[in-house]
Target: YkoF family thiamine/hydroxymethylpyrimidine-binding protein
Amino acid sequence: MECSTKGNIDITGCRVSLYPMTDNFSEVILGSFDKVDTRAVWSQTDLFSTLYRGEQESVIDATQALFMSAYQSDVHMVTELTFSKGCPGDSDADRYINGKKEKPNQEELPDDFPVKCKYSFYSFGEKDYMEEIATIVEMASEMGLNPQSAHYVTLLEGTASQLFVYFERALQYAHEHLNHYVLEATVSVNSPSEK
Amino acid sequence: MECSTKGNIDITGCRVSLYPMTDNFSEVILGSFDKVDTRAVWSQTDLFSTLYRGEQESVIDATQALFMSAYQSDVHMVTELTFSKGCPGDSDADRYINGKKEKPNQEELPDDFPVKCKYSFYSFGEKDYMEEIATIVEMASEMGLNPQSAHYVTLLEGTASQLFVYFERALQYAHEHLNHYVLEATVSVNSPSEK
Model:
């Protein structure tokens, strides 16, 4: 589970699932694929998600581009993101690594828009994992994302761009301090429950 | 994050989010709420999810009823489930506990239907967490759910009823052997990608 063969490699991955709540969901999802520059990541789409694997900065860049490209101002959409790194069973395969940490999508991103997010940060094999979670949440507070505690998740609010800057900082911290971690986030736009 | 105040209480929770990919998503979601008998759980709905908290059997029962009641044979729907128990910061509040492990929805469930599932089982503060994951996945194999390894998740296939029987067995094992765990599952029905 979570990995297939033994290894110990510096690969970040993200599973991105888009759920546009419209009859035209297929068009929205497929249309966003074409707008992502995937030259700096390995990518694959399965029944559930599109998976990007490679250097952390490049994986976040591709994830942000896919999410923001699927946004439609009149469609309620939820996106599920699973960032993961350091699984003891990960394999040195299915990745693009060239040491350049490229972000080819940052110049051509769509206009920014407001988002709500729930997320959980998980760290494995650490006795003091609750302290690491607190550190990660504190970073959201410093960035003005107004983290609110709820059962099993932390809630954030801001814009799409702010959220991905936060993900990059949080995952950079995790990369420097932790061996195996997962950030599970659910991002909602245009929910009728907000009105 | 994941919890608000200190405590050490035997409360299972599940966050259930329904994503029916149709223009009528609100009707599908709201219609399913009315069909769940919530007498054996504490429940609350926020922007992202409906949250059930209480005894493990009762929480799984309510979760299954909400998911199965939202099923429509002509609608692609994805459901996100976060089962969690044992967070060191959980509070002895927002729960229904009477020691009876009631499952009031089992007699009136809708007809069964095929599902695909991706899921990850997370155990915290344990050095041998990878072995616990392997045990949980082996249980899916014994139940005929054909677990397949993929990056960051395990894939399952079966019917809705089979899947929830598995969740109950897996979480029962976790309850007996682990302190703090999360089962994150995404269930898909009627995906056009399957055709």
